[in-house]
Model the fold of this input.
Amino acid sequence: MSHEINGHGRQIASQLNGHSDGDLSSYAFPDHRLRHNLDDPSKTPLVLVACGSFSPITNLHLRMFEMVADHVRFHTNYEIVGGYLSPVSDAYEKAGLASAKHRVAMCDLAVDETSHWLMVDPWEAIQKDYTRTALVLDHFDHEVNIVRGGAKTSSGERKLVHVALLAGADLIGTMSTPGVWSEGDLDHILGRYGAFIVERTGTDIDEALSHLQRWKENIHVIPQLIQNDSLKKAMSVRYLIPAPVIKYIQQHGLYIDDSAVPGIYSKENRGGTPLPDGTSDSEGLRS
Done:
């Protein structure tokens, strides 16, 4: 399995090299972990999509998928057939944003090391212009349902896969703020696709949802159990950021001047803890 996944990572990297300007000629939708067959024919197949900067990706991002997967299994009539990270393009121009090439590579390393069902789609990342979330979800719907025909039951019946947005409560907060999102995009995202929202400390989820009552049946809220502030302090990031991602950041000198993630280069992360490949996480660290 490792050989297959690493090969897919190289494919994504080749797509990004020289193709961050909207050239999709070498793009291929990742489906190596997408399940094409349902285990339970009575359920609706579901694909989760998380859009974001992922600069860098953390274990909390990955943990959100697992929290939602548990919620889906115990509290809904969906069956998850795939999960995707969709890093935003460089056109987003967020302060401290690493290049799309690095962010996609870090996401790919993280899912390769930790998951058997998550994938990274570079389509949004290689766009020349910023792509609205509604259009990103349309892209996944097209690839999964139109191109690949959805999912199949044991009897051979084809079912359309439901695509849904996975996000933190802070995103729902912006959706409930007047003027931030267009009414058309909100209706497209929450009305057509829906969202699975993981609560975050400090976000008034009830207040946010009160402004989105029109789509309340399509918004699933999952309680958050872990605080997400360690990156903003000079603390250890071991077990917060996946070990291979820490190593990648240090080797490429990313975020050195970014006050939002000082923990990457703090002394707590200079200890040379052995990584799975036998090297240490202090290699490539700048003094």
Notes: Residues 59-75 form the longest helix (17 residues). The chain has eight helices and eight strands. Strands lie at 44-52, 78-87, 118-120, 151-152, 158-159, 162-168, 195-198, 219-222.
